[in-house]
Amino acid sequence: MIIGLTGGIASGKSTVAKTLGTLGAYNIDADKLGHSAYVKGTAAFDQVVEAFGADVVGDDGEVDRRVLGGKVFGNPAALKQLTDIVWPAIQAMAQHEIDQALATDASRPVVLEAAVLIEAQWLDLVDQVWVTVVEPHVAIERACARDNLDPAAVQARLDAQLSNEERRACADQVIDNSADEAHLLQQVETLWKNLVSP
After folding, report:
1. Residue 109 pLDDT > 90, yes or no?
2. CATH for 32-108, among 3.20.20.70, 2.10.109.10, 1.10.8.60, 3.40.50.300?
3. Backbone phi, then psi, for 12, in 5-degree steps?
4. What are the start-end ranges of the E strands in 53-138?
5. Which of 33, 89, 179, 182 is surrounded by the fewest CB atoms within 10 Å?
6. pLDDT digit string, tens, across residues 47-105
7. Which residues contact 29 (CB under 8 A, 6 or more apart)?
8. Are the C-beta atoms of residues 27 and 111 closer than 8 Å to each other?
9. Once rounded to an integer, what is the mean pLDDT over residues 4-23?
10. d(CA 119, CA 87)
11. Cα separation of 95 and 194, whole Å?
12. Does the reported pTM lie above 0.85?
């Protein structure tokens, strides 16, 4: 069973993934894959440099994420150009890791944690979509406390993401994280029990 786990900023997605890992799932973090999707020597590296210029390459010969971020931030056309390069690369890496996990132990559930699971159209990689949701005002409060961010910056990130309603429309399971962590973990443990002993 391959679970696609997604959710917006400060919705508890990472806590859910960590808990599922503790319970026995094999976890794949698409964000971490994203960091290695365009390392030097990959096709995506060459495409990024070609699309955004040699000045995105830092002194270490790798893409400087800050410089690249500066070029795509607030520029939807440039951001799309970047995701058109990076998302397929991450998808291929995720597929490879899923295949390896299933080859090692086909009975062990695999969790693909991906903030952009729906946007990147990776739904065909997974059997079920689990979505973590939290009310926007709670997300702002938590993200500000956690990352020391300005509420307006968090709101801007929320506005750029899919809404809870859009995510719910794609979900097989919705995990509501509007209450405390104990309530969140209780939902996760129930879902896990149903998964491993239906």
Report:
1. yes
2. 3.40.50.300
3. 95, 10
4. 110-113, 128-133
5. 182
6. 999 999 999 999 999 999 989 989 998 888 999 999 999 999 999 999 999 999 999 99
7. 17, 113
8. yes
9. 94
10. 10
11. 25
12. yes
